[in-house]
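To: structure subgroup
Subject: Chain for Friday's discussion

All,

I'm putting the inputs and outputs inline so they're searchable in the archive.
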Amino acid sequence: MAYRLLSEAWDMNDRFIIESFWQRGANCAAVAFIKALLCRYGLRAGLRVMQMATGKKIIVPGGVTMLLSEREIDHINKKNQISFRRFTAATTAKKQQAVRRTVKMIFAVLVYAMETKGMSRAKALHVLTREGTGTMSLHRWLGIHGTPVRRVTKTSLNRIRKMKAVLLYNAGHIIVASAGYYDNNGHAEKLNGEIPMLLGEPASHWKRVI
């Protein structure tokens, strides 16, 4: 039986977000973090965004204010190493376009925030897409908080199933889990009683974006 995308049957919810895009490079932390922001906050992603004549004025929770033009956002995202799903239904495609715009904005905001900390743009792009980074750095750059890190157990899965915007990870990989589903490379898989496998190893730790 062909795999049926949950997002073909559901509105723009956590499952739709999980299935809308996925990683192509060593950017699992950035992709998981962006998905968590979308699941937690919706298309505003926890940012204050005002449309100006010259672009978007964006204020991150950490207090940094930036002005990014659409051209600059597009330029930064040329090397984002993120794949987006294509939908044929007009209404679904429109929702996907909204997700895509927000993903590109968040990615550009991350790069800009890293620049304000003294990192060059080339280095920021390398860290986010090639080298990889920890989610603690992503939280810190945007001023977005997370819960304390906890170990994943079968007991904790019962709690995680009921939560939104949970980051599940081990030493080699990180994904998002939200509203009873977890991300399996762009497919929303149901969280059951088994600990999800990440690159052949079970998830070992979790925390929630708040």
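Points worth raising on Friday:
Confidence is low (pLDDT under 50) at residues 1-10.
The two ends are 38 Å apart (CA to CA).

D.
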